[in-house]
Amino acid sequence: MNYETLAVERRGHVGWLVFDRPDRRNAMNNLMRDELRRAWTELAGDPEVRVIVNAANGPAFQTGADVLELATDGIGMERYRASVEAWDMGFTSWQLGIDKPVIAAVNGICAGGGLHFVADADIVLAASDAAFTDPHVSVGQVSAIETIALMRKMPAEAVLRMALVGRYERMSARRAYELGMVSEVVDPPERLRDAAQELAEKVARNSPAALRATKRALWGAFEHGLTEACKAGAAELTGLWGHPDQAEGPAAFAEKREPRWKTD
Question: Is the preceding omega at residue 59 within 30 degrees of 0, hence cis?
Fold first, then answer.
């Protein structure tokens, strides 16, 4: 598929979804929101892609809704409002129910709605010069969906501070690591994409079917209490029984070779 605001690539079993509006700090306009839905769906449906890396071209990772478009385009804000009210916000992997592992590789500034992609990724890497901020309240908007989701990853106090202070404070990559927002800080920043590809290749060596079921079980736990989460996880566990990968994994281990996983 062709995209105007994104770059979509494959590197072996790793699919890359790259924000590509560097002149607007990768802010999401209406076209990007539409293209994100198509790009996530394209990579999720490609049987050769086992892991998706979400990255960005230019000095910023993602700065959320294009405020200039909202302020000057008569339909921009109304369309965005309608999508939120209808809960039709399929521009991130979580909202589309993507069950392939997703790694976010954050460079530069990540602001506002850009935090969606941090909250919804399975693993987050940040360049050492990355910074996080939530300017919603500074432009008269409510901080809600992405910051609520971030509370699954880090202490509520830190999320509240970011949401209430707005654009007047930025969280460094190191502080984000200390608080659990990201799992690794990459230094020098120029190594970010190489580090993301290396990590994605490690993940991609595992059974694709087991990876997807594991992701569904673990993320699904946030929707339930402990007992219900364990029951749902058990259903994912038994649901994989009889899959060819369950026999291939032990056989490859015994024969000291790389597994030949089934591509669904």
Answer: no
Render pLDDT for 34-49 as a digit per residue (tens, 0 to 9). 999 999 999 999 999 9
Any idea which residue has 């669904």 for tokens? 264
Q: Phi-psi category of 196—alpha, beta or left, where left has phi over 0 and alpha has psi -120 to 50?
A: alpha
Q: Give, in order, the Cα–Cα distances in Å from 131 to each of 143, 144, 183, 257.
A: 18, 20, 14, 42
Q: What are the pLDDT digits (tens) for 147-163?
A: 999 999 999 999 999 99
Domain boundaries defined on the chain:
6-204, 208-255
Phi, psi of 104 (to 5 degrees): -95, 130
55-71: average pLDDT = 90
CATH topology for 6-204? Answer: 2-enoyl-CoA Hydratase; Chain A, domain 1 (3.90.226)
pTM for this prediction: 0.93
Q: Give the torsion through C-alpha atoms of 169, 80, 216, 239, to 10 deg.
A: 180
pLDDT digits (tens, 9 = 90+) for 156-199: 999 999 999 999 999 999 999 999 999 999 999 999 999 999 99
Residue whose token pair is 């802010």: 27
- In angstroms, the CA 29 to CA 156 distance is 29
Q: Does residue 169 contact residue 141 with C-beta atoms inside 8 Å?
A: no
Q: Give the alpha-carbon dihedral of 125, 130, 136, 138, to 10 degrees.
A: 160
d(C-alpha 69, C-alpha 44), whole Å: 29
Cβ-based neighbours of 102, under 8 Å, separated by 6 or more? 51, 52, 53, 54, 93, 120, 121, 122, 123
Contact 62, 117 (CB under 8 A): yes
pLDDT score of 225 more than 70? yes
Select from 143, 187, 188 the least CA-distant residue to 161: 143
